Here is the input.
Amino acid sequence: MAAELSAHHRRLAQQKRAAIISAATDLFLDHGYDGTSLARIAEVAAVSKSTLFKQFPTKAALFEAIVTESWQRDAAEAVARPEAGDLRSGLTSIGHRYADLMSRPGMTALFRIVIAELPRFPELGRMQFQLGKLPYFTSVQRYLESEHEAGNADVPDTESAANQFLGMIANYVLWPRMLLTDWNPTASDIRYSVEQAVETTLARYTPGRRA
Here is the structure.
């Protein structure tokens, strides 16, 4: 019985946490980071102020959680590095995972919040970069290093290569959404954009093909 109650309490806590993060994301987007109070977030999330403050004592802590959850949801799968040995297969796997991540509605909202508030709250940009983008980028860079070391790729500058590969995908999947509210590419369009990013990267970094 005690174990069942404990599991029940954990589920309730997780549900309340999810409600708080969802409410905060919507309110930050609609009213700005500075224009949203923790009290208002608690009201919209339908939780008590004490419950909210217990989990997130400051808005900065709450925003940190938004960034972390946006980038690390299904983290084990999202950042897992493919085994070295098949560059095409590895890049394809990474590319589709990244496209899925960038296609999440919450990701567009997160970028909009950061961009809107960056002049007054530069720390939000640092959180987005250090807690979200950088760990993901590093995992891709490490994969390219492993393929280079195994002789399956000729990538002397893995930082540039990772930027190029992820940038090609984000440029189609994410950035148009920042300005075009009706931008909604089909699954086949996204798949094609990933395939083209893979082909371009292979053409540049397959051993013997680098200019």
User: Anything to note?
Assistant: Residues 94 and 140 are 8 Å apart (CA to CA). The mean pLDDT is 88. DSSP finds eleven helices and no strands in the chain.
